[in-house]
Design goal:
Layout: H1 3-13, H2 18-25, H3 29-36, H4 44-54, H5 58-61, H6 69-93, H7 99-110, H8 114-127
Length: about 140
């Protein structure tokens, strides 16, 4: 079964309409419809949002719930290693920020959906091109 099929089955088990699920995930109803009809495949962060709304593991949506406990732990360990590598490389990029500034950026950013996060990144990139806001070499 596809991710879309699994989303549809779980949504129906919970007696949710596509519109209700979309609202819980902060997505458009058409997006849920396209996933369920297999016209589009959700990115991993969207799968996580949908799984959270359906109160299941993302692995259930991927159809990996039949993995043994050992295989699941191995998959989780690999995922955690990847996340740790990404985190450490990103931390190097923002190490110049003090703790209070990091919190002021990251907390609101994590409350945005994917579209909002993309827009926030665009805005920051635009600000870096304005000489008035550029960091001066010391």
């Amino acid at each position: 079964m596809s991710i879309g099929d699994n989303i549809k089955i779980l949504r129906k088990k919970q007696h949710l309409t596509q519109k209700e699920l979309a609202k819980k995930c902060d997505l458009a109803e058409i997006t849920i419809r396209q996933y369920e009809s297999n016209k589009r495949e959700p990115k991993s962060e969207i799968v996580a949002q949908i799984a959270m709304a359906l109160d299941v593991s993302p692995y259930v949506l991927y159809g990996l719930d039949s993995l043994s406990q050992e295989e699941t732990h191995e998959l989780l360990n690999d995922s955690m290693k990847t996340i740790a590598k990404l985190w450490s490389s990103n931390m190097n990029a923002i190490k110049f920020l003090d703790d209070s500034r990091i919190g002021k950026i990251i907390r609101p950013f994590t409350n945005l959906n994917t579209i909002g996060q993309d827009k926030a990144i665009e805005q920051v990139e635009l600000l870096t091109k304005i000489p008035e806001y550029q960091k001066k070499d010391e």
